[in-house]
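Please check this record.
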Amino acid sequence: MPSPFQFLRRLKWRISSRKFVILTSARTGSNALVNAMTRHPKIHCDYELFHELEIYADGPCPFSLEERDKDQWQFLDTVMGWSKQRYPKKKIYGFKLFFDHSQAVYDQIIEDISWRKIILRRSNILDQFTSEQLAFASNRWHSDAGQNKPTPSKVDIDLDEFDRYRQYIARRYQRAEDSLIASGQDYLMLDYEDVAAGHFDKACRFLCVSASKQVKTHLKKQNPLKSADKIANAAEVRQWLQDKNLSQWWVD
């Protein structure tokens, strides 16, 4: 239950600027979440507006990286205005922001209470890391993408690299939650499993809209479920997880 203060903030949000950001990292189901949210008749959601190499909006973006990087916060206002022109019936605007995208935008938006925050994470960090390694190997980041390279059936997991990765992921999510809690902001925590199961009603309620039959994604899971089916050095990784008391991340 939200506190009375959070309830008033939510009420104010409902009648003023209606904006949300998905704070997340790669391979958490964020493309599927964006794809589902933008199918709601009242919501428009963009992808990675602040990706280092390209602006991933919903559809071809008329703005250049140079325009974006000249003033990133102003660019966000410009994109919202562009979306309003294209979709005048959609009153709620959102986009996704990875923790390793623009630090300046992250720092500003995490403090701005007019932006509602959805934190999307993947509880199984091994699956997240393995999925990222497979995506790097194939350059195929979602199920709609064409294959630029043959998709490998398995990848070797560098355990030192994975250990650094899991600690980094834990720090970034904890830092985001700590900031929101310290400033008294209401936020929604979603897990990859929520998205994979099509549980988009949680996000709809958080954004103060009714769930819609249209809110579903056409994107599909890319990789096998079982850990041994996608990790080449499976025995080594499984033993490492046991030694670290992280065996819950191994999927049989």
Notes: The first helix runs from residue 4 to 15.
